[in-house]
Amino acid sequence: MPSKRDYYEVLGIDRDATDEKIKGAFRKLAFEHHPDRNRNDGAEEKFKELNEAYEVLSDPDKRAAYDRFGHGGNGGPFGQGFEGVDFGGFGDIFDAFFGGATTAASQAPQRGADLRHRMKITFEEAAFGVDKEINILRTEHCSLCQGTGCRRGSQPSRCPGCNGSGQVRKVQQSIFGRFTNITTCPQCHGEGMIITEPCPQCRGSGKEKHQRGILVKIPSGVEDSSRVRLTGEGDVGARGGPTGNLYINLEVKPHKFFRRDGNDILYELPINFVQVALGTEVKVPTLDGDVKLKIPAGSQTGKVFRLKNKGISHLNGGGRGDQLVTLLVVTPESLNKKQRQLFEELGKTFDPTATEK
């Protein structure tokens, strides 16, 4: 078990320190290390150590015994140390410094909560943009009392517990002096007003849930995992605060044969080796429909053709990307008798050493 530190060392004072110096040193260190203010690891143990040292050194009899026997000594009166000291009484004191500031904030207008919705869209919808209507369950002002929380014809009354301030003040005397502890009124919860005749529809909350249809405009060029913000379409705020936002998280479904690379579209064109050997003209699918593409004779697999302005629209305007068409020469897996005969005859016309160059 680790040995206790010297109480004078704990408080950072000399052994001949006066009562005023002891009190001043403790007051300074207690503020610094109180767990409600200092969230660092070990702050609670440090604070307990400070309290234990002060409990002993602030009492003339305990201090005299400590100066003579130390923490325990052989057979000294503090053989068990100064255990069991109650340190809980300082909590209310520190609440006066660090707890009262939240009351004013609780009475201020509060912004409504943001809402989130996941939407799946197609590859084409992401490319060109789309308008979609969704249904959102959100908190709105009560339609009967218009958000007051009161029965029609009635008004909220001033809270008798705090006289409308939303705060309760309590004077306390402590080792630090005389303090006024300010806390949120438990009767009105900081509102300052009490609803004596609540609205039968919202039961005094002033709010209710509504299912709303909202039109969402998805701009052209959005990508998978993009987010669209609809300002003011979230939950209603409190005490006149602004409404929250609605965020639409987009999930773009994969396309059957297109892939995306930024604002460009990638497409692999399957073609047989007769077509690439002789050259041909083929139809290539694009987001705008089929277009004709000339394949020069002798084109190799992997060759890329660029179709200008056939890609994805730029998100902030300014044109479109391109479509990149990559040739993929397909070798037939099986040949009929006639095809095999023709290929054998064709093969005899080639120089067998040509592939070795």
Notable features of this structure?
alpha+beta, 15 strands, Helix Hairpins, single chain, 4-stranded mixed beta sheet, 3-stranded mixed beta sheet, HSP40/DNAj peptide-binding domain, Chaperone, DNAj Protein, Chain A, 357 residues, 3 domains
Describe the structure.
The chain has helices at residues 7-11, 19-33, 43-57, 60-69, 91-98, 101-107, 123-128, 273-278, 337-347, and strands at residues 115-121, 130-141, 157-158, 167-174, 177-184, 193-194, 207-218, 227-230, 246-252, 259-261, 264-272, 280-284, 291-295, 304-307, 323-330. The chain has 357 residues and is an alpha+beta fold. The protein has three domains: 7-86, Helix Hairpins (Orthogonal Bundle); 115-252, Heat shock protein DnaJ, cysteine-rich domain (Chaperone, DNAj Protein, Chain A), CATH 2.10.230; 259-347, HSP40/DNAj peptide-binding domain (Sandwich). Strands 10-11-15-14 form a four-stranded mixed sheet. Strands 1-9-8 form a three-stranded mixed sheet. Helix 2 (19-33) runs antiparallel to helix 3.
Topology diagram in text:
Layout: H1 7-11, H2 19-33, H3 43-57, H4 60-69, H5 91-98, H6 101-107, E1 115-121, H7 123-128, E2 130-141, E3 157-158, E4 167-174, E5 177-184, E6 193-194, E7 207-218, E8 227-230, E9 246-252, E10 259-261, E11 264-272, H8 273-278, E12 280-284, E13 291-295, E14 304-307, E15 323-330, H9 337-347
Parallel strand pairs: 1-9, 11-15
Antiparallel strand pairs: 2-7, 3-6, 4-5, 8-9, 10-11, 12-13, 14-15
